[in-house]
Amino acid sequence: MFEYSPSESHQRTGSLAAGTALVNTWVEVLAEDAEGLPGGDGEQAGEQDGGLIDRIRALEELKAAAAAAQARATALFDASQHRKQAEARVRREELSRGVASQIALARRESPNRGGRLLGFAKVLTSEMPCTLQALTLGRISEWRATLLVRETACLSLEDRRRVDEEVAGDPDVLETLGDRQIISRARGAAYRLDPRAAVKRAAKAESERFVSCRPAPDTMTYLTGLLPVAQGVGVFAALSREADRLRASGDGRGRGQIMADTLVERVTGQADAERMKVEVQLVMSDRTLLGGDSEPALVPGYGPVPAQWARDLIRGRRPGREAGKEVGRDTRGAKPEEGPEQPAGRKTKQDEQEQRWIRRLYTEPTTGQLVAMDSRARLFPVSLGRFIAARDQTCRMPWCGAPIRHLDHIRPHQDGGPTNMVNGQGLCEACNQAKEAPGWKARTVDSLGDSIGQSGPHTVETTTPTGHAYRSTAPPLPGVRAGAGAGAVSGDQAGSGTRAGAGAAHRTGPETEDQSSAGIQPVKRSGFPTTLLEECIVDLIWAA
Known about the structure:
Blueprint: E1 2-5, H1 15-33, H2 42-87, H3 99-106, H4 111-127, H5 129-136, H6 142-151, H7 157-168, H8 171-174, H9 179-193, H10 195-207, E2 210-216, E3 220-226, H11 229-248, H12 255-268, E4 278-283, H13 286-290, E5 297-299, E6 303-305, H14 307-315, H15 349-353, E7 356-361, E8 374-375, H16 382-392, E9 406-409, E10 419-420, E11 424-427, H17 429-435, E12 441-445, E13 459-463, E14 469-473, H18 513-516, H19 532-543
Parallel strand pairs: 4-7
Antiparallel strand pairs: 1-14, 2-3, 5-6, 8-10, 9-11, 12-13, 13-14
Protein name: HNH endonuclease
Domain HNH nuclease: 383-433
Organism: Arthrobacter zhaoxinii
């Protein structure tokens, strides 16, 4: 889904270019040599095994030396960018904006990770010379150097250098230490030199408490809370007591199930964890919805889900369970009382409690693109924002993957960029701020590389101040036909079929959310083999 293009000066001669060329040669040598590793048996194999161990150690030292070289290059790049932005009279509080994002793109990491790598490089090269030397010689790994930097974060420059000399001053001893030993020695030295730093560090850690949610396998999620120890232990103890109480009274659920359900009920205020009123966006094909197809659906913010799971959710049935069967939901160990049969079409109180709103988003079958909306508004209306978020799923900056927080005009609004789905992309807060730094450019291209043709998946090309270009293609959506052009697009690859996006977009009247979301225009579909029933259903959906 991501592509990289070097800057125009990448092939220029000079010390930096020559050094980069030498590193690239090593990469090629290692790639070619991987196919020619020796093999054998008997005594010869024993000799070769010894050589392979020597090779593994040498490569480990090479990785460490490369990490040290990366740190030095990173610190130099940051200083150079800081100086150039200062000469350009960038405001002091905005100096070095976008530098961490450029580091992240170069290392194929998220901007958050890029910021940590930048901070690590600056500290390592300017404040911890012994650790840097050990890393350069291959005596420790990048991770263990990171541990030393992390454990001295609250110390003054003078104390940090003293800890660095005490722990990493003897490379022979440092090389024998494992992760826990390095942490223990660094913390011990830090506590001895500055006891108050530990108190400051604890206060800082408490200020960074948060709750996060990330996908887990099998349509589950990890809800994680980083809390002060007293609060975290208290929450767990309360859930444990409630689980023990209900188990003692005959509840048929497992202890972990009760704790999870109790957490949901107490946080949301619902009487039953499974009777929540929720709005779920489902992106799915008509074949999955109506034809029993196995093409997965997509829940924006989570990812792909099984087709049957999605159909169960729409029907109001507990996903993944057969009709009439509920496992572990008998709260008193006895069968629920069977009430009188309800007349057809009449909603029971339980049905009302289980209301679900399904927002239907349909893709053009031949290209896999969501049908376009448009608006003259400066800000993206809520409905159009949902539309873009469903298409992009996560931050569109390459290798980021963070949740979408901002809707960004690819071509800035002040430069005439329209507020529509073609010119919009979802970004996290950090990437959107980095993109506003001087020298950053972005444009929309189609799968053939032409500007805003949109004959294939939505593709954005971002160019950094150094001239390096990175392309991000919207991930494929459910229902895309094979060869329709979904997924990564590079060079001469392009999706075939109907041109959607800019051609399908339409302008609306006044700047209101209702009008911006009112129209989903029909698109001519050629070469789309369907049955008569499918055609009728799709036409009804488009007309609605």
